[in-house]
Design goal:
Elements (H helix, E strand, L loop, with lengths): L1 H15 L6 H7 L11 E4 L4 H4 L3 H11 L7 E7 L2 E6 L1 H15 L13 E5 L11 H19 L3 E5 L7 H13 L9 H18 L1 H15 L3 H25 L16 H10 L3 E4 L2 E4 L10 E4 L7 H16 L3 E5 L5 H11 L6 H5 L1 E4 L4 E3 L2 E2 L10 H15 L8 H18 L7 E2 L2 H4 L7 H18 L16 H11 L1 H10 L4 H20 L7 H25 L8
Parallel strand pairs: 4-5, 4-9, 9-10, 11-13
Antiparallel strand pairs: 1-3, 2-3, 6-7, 7-8, 11-12
């Protein structure tokens, strides 16, 4: 319906007769009102108040009196509280939306705004030798959705899994394994056992400062390439990656790079050298830091600890240097929890002192998200209080299978997996990413709620209707006037807005915008389906309604695909 916006913008421009305002600028301001009583389109006249030096109410009234229409597109114009409301001929809305959809068909909603640009998306990034718990699920699901969204918008998109495979925590694990390794058989359930060792050594560190100091010295040995430490570290890493791959396979998540923190261990000295050269390093209690008080950040960014070992900020800075040189990125997004807000503020500011082009430092962005809680509170791997993602996903698949046990379906295992995994992904993306969340699996699997299974079911229903009719989509068979009833128009308007939804979701790095939109489309189709007889002897009515059903099917499938959710053949 962009061409209708163009018509409205032209009408307004002609009525204003002011050279400072052009059609394109006016078009950008045209809105679709939430309330249908306010028309199909609205123009907020306060946008012109400064230029025309008039009150918005007066501008709206003057425009209403001065606009001349030919009566083919605009039915009525109203002036209400500084807004100019346009009521459009319903058949024109239908015609415009169908013609727009028909250009792309199966690729509907795809954009080219990112053509020629490259985006890096870093997400998931679990710590090796620890269970993959639902705290990691959020970053994995949000990151994968953003990867899909940017790619659909035309960007060359590269996914990065910055594994947590370095730091004092691994020295702790090595020290714990030295003490108790013989008690554990790592040939089965290795991560659970390593997690138990980690929990035990942490408790010992809290009781005895000398043990903690031993762990710090062990990390220095690991950094120095000590044969025993490196051998153990590699074993822990291989065992972990096998476990992580099970999760990624279930979620259908893939990465272009698995370079973890350890990859940058030999690249950190360059960071220190550049900061020294630029006079940005100062000493604080034996450590080397960058003072950021002039940037409004009270806490200094530690670059090297007092014992000479590195810290993860140093490795993140080395990664920025490497990524700028390797990928020449336009944007580098970090999908990491909100508890790391200060860390990224520090790192992004220090990155400006690394002699990089501003293009790279300006392109760094932390996409934060809220905490995941168990009903009894926050999770902690140190205390052993967590939910493993593999258990959660398998439970969801099992429950989905149980819910559908009375349905006559072929390949029930595959469908249960698609529904179970889809339910978890959708539930994780349903609310704004910055909100804290208590995960409720029973709610996620509600087929009648605002859930993944509900949207999947409506997408499957559209396919079922089309299959039953043996329908082959053909825009030329559509009588636009058939689709001018309220439920058809509402659904048509929603579908027409899909590209704007995707763009808004990308601009805000907020997949929940697409999640909520898919629920709205599914609900609107349900009302349309109940209000209109789709399969009928009236060929004109049937063809028009089947085409709108086809539009709904593609829109729901593409929306779910962007979120990382598959649509079953049947449900």
């Amino acid at each position: 319906m962009d061409d209708i916006k163009e018509v409205i913008a032209k009408l307004i421009e002609n009525a204003i007769e002011n050279s400072e305002i052009n059609t394109q600028e006016i078009k950008e301001y045209i809105e679709i009102p939430k309330e249908e009583s306010n028309g199909d389109y609205a123009f907020p006249c306060f946008k012109l108040a400064k230029v025309l030096r008039q009150a918005p109410n007066q501008i709206a009234e003057n425009l209403k009196n001065n606009i001349i229409t030919d009566g083919t597109v605009i039915d009525k114009i109203e002036s209400v509280s500084g807004y100019l409301n346009f009521f459009v001929d319903k058949s024109q809305i239908v015609k415009s939306a169908i013609e727009k959809f028909d250009i792309q068909k199966k690729d509907y909603g795809k954009l080219d705004v990112g053509n020629g640009k490259r985006v890096l998306v870093e997400y998931s990034s679990p710590n090796i030798a620890k269970p993959f718990h639902i705290g990691h699920l959020k970053t994995t699901i949000i990151g994968n959705a953003l990867y899909n969204i940017y790619k659909y918008c035309g960007y060359e998109t590269i996914s990065l899994n910055h594994l947590g495979d370095y730091g004092t925590q691994f020295a702790k694990l090595i020290e714990g394994y030295k003490r108790w390794g013989k008690e554990y058989d790592l040939s089965t359930n290795a991560i659970d056992k390593l997690s138990e060792i980690y929990k035990r050594i942490n408790e010992l560190c809290e009781e005895d400062e000398n043990v903690l100091e031993e762990c710090r010295q062990t990390f220095k040995k690991l950094e120095g390439g000590d044969e025993y430490c490196v051998k153990l570290w590699n074993e822990f890493k291989e065992l972990s990656l096998k476990e992580f791959d099970k999760i990624y396979d279930l979620l259908n998540v893939k990465f272009d790079s698995y370079k973890g923190e350890a990859f940058y261990s030999d690249k950190m000295q360059e960071v220190i050298d550049i900061l020294e050269k630029n006079g940005k390093l100062t000493e604080s209690q034996g450590a080397k830091v960058v003072d950021l008080t002039d940037k409004g950040i009270k806490a200094p960014c530690i670059i090297q600890k007092s014992n000479g070992s590195s810290i993860y900020a140093t490795r993140d800075l080395a990664a920025i240097l490497y990524r700028a040189r390797t990928y020449d990125f336009d944007k580098c997004i970090y999908v990491v929890g909100e508890e790391q807000n200060l860390h990224f503020k520090q790192v992004f500011e220090v990155a400006k002192y690394l002699d990089l082009d501003e293009k790279y430092t300006n392109g760094l962005e932390h996409v934060s998200y809220g905490m995941i809680f168990l009903p009894e509170g926050k999770m902690s791997t140190r205390k052993g209080n967590f939910v493993k993602v593999e258990d959660l996903l398998n439970e969801s698949i099992s429950k989905a299978k149980e819910i559908m046990q009375d349905r006559s379906l072929e390949d029930k295992e595959k469908i249960a997996k698609q529904v179970g995994i889809g339910a978890v992904i959708f539930e994780d993306l349903k609310e704004s990413r910055i909100k804290n969340q208590i995960f409720d699996l029973n709610e996620a699997l509600n087929f009648n709620g605002e859930t993944g299974p509900y949207v999947q079911y409506m997408a499957v229903r559209t396919k079922s209707v089309l299959d039953k009719a043996g329908y082959v989509p053909n825009k030329d068979d559509v009588d636009f006037n058939v689709l001018t009833d309220d439920s058809s128009i509402k659904l048509m308007k929603l579908i027409n807005n899909f590209d704007k939804i995707i763009l808004n979701s990308m601009d805000k790095n907020e997949p929940s915008i697409i999640t909520r939109y898919s629920v709205d489309v599914a609900k609107a189709y349900s009302i349309f389906y109940n209000n209109n007889k789709i399969l009928s002897e009236d060929r004109e009515s049937q063809n028009a309604r089947l085409y709108l059903t086809y539009m709904t099917k593609i829109t729901l499938e593409n929306a779910l695909k962007l979120l990382g959710i598959e649509v079953p053949e049947k449900m």
